[in-house]
TrEMBL record:
Subcellular location field: Secreted, Extracellular space, Extracellular matrix
Entry superkingdom: Eukaryota
Alphabetic keyword roster: Extracellular matrix, Secreted
Descriptive protein name: COKA1 protein
Gene that produces this protein: Col20a1
Source organism per UniProt: Psilopogon haemacephalus (coppersmith barbet)
Residues in coiled coil: none
Amino acid sequence: GLSQYSSDPRTEWELSTYSTRDQVLEAVRNLRYKGGNTFTGLALTHVLEQNLKPDAGARLEAEKLVILLTDGKSQDDANLAAQTLKNLGIEIFAIGVKNADEAELKQVASEPLELTVYNVLDFPLLSSLVGKLTRVLCSRIKEKSNKETADIPVSMGPQLSPSDLKISAVTSKSMHLTWSPPLRPPKKYRIVYSPSKGGEPREVALDGAVSSFQLSNLTSHMEYLVSVFPVYDTAVGDGLRGVASTLPLSSPRSLRVSELSHNSIRLSWKAAQGATQYLVLCSAAPDGAED
């Protein structure tokens, strides 16, 4: 499977999209480069939430490997996202090109770093890594597959997945989330939320015993995408997703003008709930400069 990223990750193809080597190579040849920013943390989260799912072709019994290829320093917290993947037993290989930050590569990658971190000066030099990387990846898969894996869930159905996400008590700055927990309580929940029209997602980790949360410090009159993921020791259950818009800020009402003189006007209005200040603009009609 392959995803490209900048400020918005994009899945190019899933693990289950192609079934032969020739199909994959043809897809690589037709790949269009995606320019833009370097939100590596967002990309790793995208891979976890979108690409490493059973409906995207990720088999629960198979070893999970992520190869990160980057040519710059991340503009968000790549280490936090990488740690989430590693905590779930997903192994990360980090390959840097040109302006990649080697310290960040070492933070993101799994141990041992001498096998999982690579850095080259330019893109053509990536070809020099292919042989070694192939051998390392294959040996790691064999090594991990030979170890006994304990308590790997065989189903991602109702037993591991919450249901019935409800969004209520919506205000201009907050909304309340509730959901029904899965039959098997998770170790924790990850709440991920972001404006639907773009913007860096925010994330909250909750104890697996809770089934509600208040999102606060939101922007008024904004549509938000909300996801709730149950996290287990060896898997992430299917997430719940919802959409809700915060309310617009309340407006002052019933503007009245009184006590006019040759150089003054008195204004009065009904207060706007929650307002701490008012900005009054006036201009000479019809096209005068604003004062």
